[in-house]
Specification:
Layout: H1 2-8, H2 16-46, H3 52-90, H4 93-120, H5 122-128, H6 136-146, H7 150-165, H8 169-193, H9 198-220, H10 238-273, H11 275-311, H12 315-342, H13 344-349, H14 355-368, H15 375-387, H16 391-412, H17 421-446
Helix pairs in contact: 2-3, 2-8, 2-11, 3-4, 3-6, 3-7, 3-10, 3-11, 4-7, 5-6, 6-9, 7-8, 7-9, 8-9, 10-11, 10-16, 11-12, 11-14, 11-15, 12-15, 14-17, 15-16, 15-17, 16-17
Length: 455
């Protein structure tokens, strides 16, 4: 059984594009389903009779908190799974299992700690993130329930990459599909039928995440998996913890800086334009998550293949994988960029058809997504750095685009040339060009061109 599994998921054999697509397509479908049920949450909330716009703003204030929780899940999942792939490529199965077990223990510790912290400091956190006396009740209703499912988020998001890293991408897709289907069914029941409003949306999400977490654990402790989660692998080892956290710090920093930017945007928009512009940014973030989903699926799908071949000493196949990933990602990004700029009004109406929201939202959309295609450069470069274990490069470029470019521009541009709120939306396209080009060019000259055929 083990021999058959190893042959099936030996990424040093067969077509590189096929290996990547075999992982990327199910992972992209999983990402789509995941985004879909997050969008469904926001669409339902935005259409609560009489209070949809305020409720949507309240949910938008919770998005930085959600980004932080996802960041800690990525810290272990995105850090452990590429390392796991490298050990699999070397044939070190026991070490790969130890990486997975250590990642699981870290996820549990982070989950418990974050739950306690968020519940204890909920009110100051939300006001710091841009809440007003009008929007705070909606944000508090959602956050107080959502954070109770933090451990489920850690397990579901943090351990699913270990399923994908072994080549079981359809099972990984099932993790997300189960949670999404349950959430889509429960949302209208809790929000409208039972009259729970925002609290109902949060409860539906928590129950869905719990189902996904159970699915992941059943698979990783079962007989089908090649690498098994066992009690003996859970004891933390300092060396492995350091490598997991170091490699995962790229995804963690991306989530943290994304959260920071969301906080700055919400606070700056509230100061310059009021709660309405916070709602506009909530809709923009929702659409951005949806249209970047295929890019995330492809770049995550390439990482186990690149990491495995790097561990196996096949530099020629690593370069081939980089070329294929770059071509697919860039082609998609250009197509969706043109589509987004052509129909911003239709996208906003998915959430709420308020005339004032449309009047403010359409110009903001066109500014924010002006250079969206260049964002693919960042995703490609980051994926390669993470897959090959170059954590310092990955962390640096995560910080460069969000912390060193977007954050300062978000604060400064509103004061320049009378831009006001438009300055907040302009910070993103500027960072896409500067940060994206810096990341992909560095990857090309320091990694791609220097890889020998045989390592």
């Amino acid at each position: 059984m083990l021999t058959q599994t190893n042959t099936t998921h030996d990424f040093s054999q067969g077509s590189i594009p096929r290996n990547i697509l075999n992982l990327a397509l199910p992972m992209t479908a999983a990402q789509f389903i995941n985004i879909l049920y997050n969008l469904v949450d926001r669409i339902y909330i935005g259409r609560i009779p009489g209070e949809g716009r305020l409720a949507l703003t309240g949910l938008g204030l919770c998005l930085p908190v959600i980004s932080i929780l996802i960041g800690f899940a990525n810290l272990c999942g995105s850090g452990g799974s590429p390392l796991c792939s490298i050990y699999r490529g070397r044939g070190e199965r026991e070490r790969a299992e130890k990486v997975m077990g250590n990642s699981f223990t870290l996820l549990l510790l982070f989950g418990v700690g974050l739950t306690a912290f968020c519940l204890a400091f909920q009110r100051p956190i939300l006001y710091l993130f841009g809440a007003s006396d009008v929007t705070y009740p909606y944000a508090a209703d959602y956050m107080s329930i959502y954070v109770l499912g933090t451990v489920f988020v850690m397990i579901g998001l943090g351990m699913n990459p270990f399923i994908n890293a072994q080549g079981f991408s359809r099972t990984g897709m099932g993790t997300v599909a189960l949670g999404a289907a349950l959430n889509i069914v429960l949302d209208p029941v809790f929000i409208f039928l039972l009259g729970m409003g925002v609290k109902g949306a949060a409860l539906a999400t928590v129950l869905s995440q719990a189902a996904s977490a159970v699915w992941v654990l059943l698979f990783l402790t079962g007989r089908r998996t090649e690498l098994r989660l066992t009690p003996g692998s859970l004891r933390l080892e300092r060396e492995l913890v350091g490598r997991i956290l170091g490699l995962g710090s790229s995804g963690f920093v991306m989530s943290m800086t994304n959260s920071l930017v969301q906080v700055l945007c919400n606070a700056t928009l509230k100061a310059w334009g009021g709660d309405l512009y916070v709602t506009v940014m909530t809709v923009i973030n929702s659409i951005r998550e949806a249209i970047t989903m295929p890019v995330t699926g492809v770049t995550q799908g390439c990482q186990p293949v690149l990491g495995y071949n790097y561990g196996a000493g096949r530099g020629d196949r690593v370069r081939q994988g980089i070329r294929f990933t770059a071509a697919v990602t860039m082609a998609y990004s250009v197509a969706v960029w043109l589509l987004t700029l052509a129909a911003p009004g239709a996208l906003i109406r998915l959430f709420n058809d308020d005339a004032e929201l449309l009047a403010r939202g359409i110009p903001a959309f066109r500014i924010y997504f002006a250079t969206f295609a260049c964002m693919s450069f960042q995703f490609i470069g980051q994926a390669v750095f993470v897959a090959l274990g170059r954590s310092r490069n990955a962390v640096f470029f995560s910080l460069l685009r969000k912390a060193f470019i977007v954050a300062p521009l978000t604060l400064l541009l509103p004061f320049c040339f009378g831009l006001g709120v438009n300055g907040v939306f302009l910070a993103e396209p500027v960072s896409n060009v500067i940060g994206g080009l810096a990341c992909i060019l560095t990857m090309y000259f320091t990694v791609y061109r220097k890889l020998p055929d045989r390592l």
